[in-house]
């Protein structure tokens, strides 16, 4: 019999009889004793760390090979944090474990035997992941585990909403605010004026200038993103650039979100992808960019700049938390202005979870109003430097929002059509389009669990949502 640890197994390892796998995690009680009263009151009860001792044998070709197998065993089993552990005689249960102690093998010729000890800081074991879809605003969710577990809810918004409620018999989660139709009105704080998913060139025209280079070559779409079909030629930066007028502009208070790619690590490639904010005369008001300008090393850096190439103020001009943080970048470039306050944001996006990570946010107060021109256009640009091999460059998505001010009688929308909301009760997280929005949580709301057995859950406003899903994993003592 064997085991699967961190998604891998080893053919040279066998699990022997005599393993110590407790039926449940250890439980510790804390008591209060009252003088003159027999026994005690239970003050507290907690489930402690589970330990699993596994006797194993490793079999090599000879004693020398056995030493190499022990090195491989260490590389496999020693991890920075708990990872999945599955035993082949219990394939539908998963522990989250890491090695503790040492492995002192008794060696006889080509066989080494000993005990591998695992600890599970999360003392529960888990069954397979379950997935359900809400067919109406109320759903029954059956948790087949022997203890409570924590669900994940996801929903796609069909129309603007000010509130999302998820309610059980005992607890509730709520984000945003409801609207009292007698005295309040819903309000679009962020009014989306432009959403281009870069599947068509309609509405785009040639840009007139870019920083430190020439506009040449051709920009096309592959149906999912803007890319260069040709970068043209030039001694410095050269590549195509396109611009689009923002509908219902120009804008004073606004936010621009762009999803871009700079794949620079493979074969050590250079390049840049840039987003320009322009006024009606094509003057640069601000710019966001990801670049790699290094020879012989992959080293991407991000840039957020106010003004043109002469009169300018950098908000971001760095590699991230450390050199290489933004290599092979797929993620968001964002810039926002409200009044005199500018805010720039760069973040990678996990393509599996849509979660933002490796982030940087910087704000700047333009006290003198140097960078106060209204924004009328957006330009996008990808470029190669000289004859250096270009990185993989693309623009996947572009959104522009007008940011409106509001009164106390106006309740802001928290999500618009197409937005994806995820509330993860296991991680205590609230995400909208992969971004943390725990600021929207109602004061009295809480992250809740699904009790063992059947749970009734209601979600609203259901009619304003689609693809309402719930995911959970049964837990066992």
Q: Beta-strand percentage?
A: over 45%
Helix content: under 10%
Radius of gyration: 28 Å
CATH topology (fold) name of the largest domain = Jelly Rolls
- Between the first and last Cα atoms, what is the distance in angstroms? 24 Å
Low-pLDDT windows of residues: none
CATH top level class name of the largest domain: Mainly Beta
Number of domains: 3
Work out the number of β strands.
40
Average predicted local confidence, pLDDT = 91
Figure out the total of helices: 1
Q: Biggest β-sheet, characterized?
A: 9 strands, mixed
Q: What class do helices, strands and sheet pairing give? A: mainly beta
What is the annotated CATH architecture of the largest domain?
Answer: Sandwich
Shape descriptor? globular
Descriptive tags:
single chain, 477 residues, Jelly Rolls, 3 domains, 9-stranded mixed β-sheet, 7-stranded antiparallel β-sheet, 1 helix, Siphovirus-type_tail_N, Phage tail component-like protein, Dit_BPSPP_N
